[in-house]
Predict the structure.
Amino acid sequence: MRKVLVIVLLALAAALPLSAQKSSSMKKLESQRAQLEKEIAVLNRQLKDNSSAKEKELTKLSLVKSKIQAREKLIAASDQALRILDDSIRTCRADIGKLQARHDTLSAYYSRLVRSTYKNRDSRMWYMYVLSSQSIGQGFRRFGYLRSLASEMGAQATRIRETSAALEVEKERLESLRATEADVRRQVVSERSKLRSEEDESSRLVEKLSKDRKKYESQLREKNRQKEALNKKIADLIRQQQSKGGGKGSGSKGGKKTSTVIDTKLSNEFASNKGRLPWPVEGAIVERFGKHRHPVYQNVELPQNNGVTLAVKRGTQARAVFNGTVSQIVVLPGYNQCVLVNHGAYYTLYSKLATVAVKPGDKVKTGQIVGTVDTIGGEDLFHFELWNGTTPQNPENWLRD
């Protein structure tokens, strides 16, 4: 019996790390799904706000495509959760089988003990069994045997109760896993239905934009001019900052000594946090870093996007991603107020702001509010950039997942 107990305990102990790993994976997936659902809610809000704007089809298409991407990720996360749940259910069923087998074995052994005790239930027989011993030693051994028999019956009954309780816990866990799995499957069916609807909406918008190409090309040219102006302005501002002292030392102007030595310590701290910086706002990415082709006119290449653009809730506050100093505040068409923050050799840009909570020369801390996102043409979009000197970086590589 002890051997059976040891084997069962070892099997359960071996399953614990795997169970903990599955639990950790499920928590991570739940967190990811919750974040994606929040992004989809923001995009839905944006689409609702833009629903009456006849000339915003291009923006709507961008929002719908971003929503489709988020929905696909949500479905993928749900499918992964289902695989973990299916695996957990199989493991749980196997554990129940082991516990049931142990319960049956213990019960059978206990039944034999009870039958044996019942047959010899007359206490006089127990006394005679001890008193008929041929020696004192044999008498003590017989007495010890009878006492251990009674003790074993009590212990066996306890083991049966414990196994029964463990069995009930596992059965309840199995039912909980089944209920969770059914709920996730219903969600997946619902999400796939929404995805099909969104893909149809995207196709309709693409068809409309294709028909009215001339109308939307003028809007596109204006947006491209704004983006190119932003790219040039930010690069010029950073070059000006660096040229004041070349990042190497200090100089004097009008008798006043100035210093633009790059803060190496701050630069190193900023660089060491790559991949762990907080996002400046909470929202859904609708335009990613780099060069892209137009979503409808595939032969048209859009200007380099030096950052990321996010759809956000109206009135969202933008926060500094790291300690630094406000270098400049500029106003540009299509981007409204823009705040440039210096972090040693690195710079971050916060644009499309309605109000600004800082001024040039201010020291800012990680998480400090730099401004409030503006509503421009009915759109609540925030644009963020990150530069290493005069080289733009992909913010998604620097900001935490």
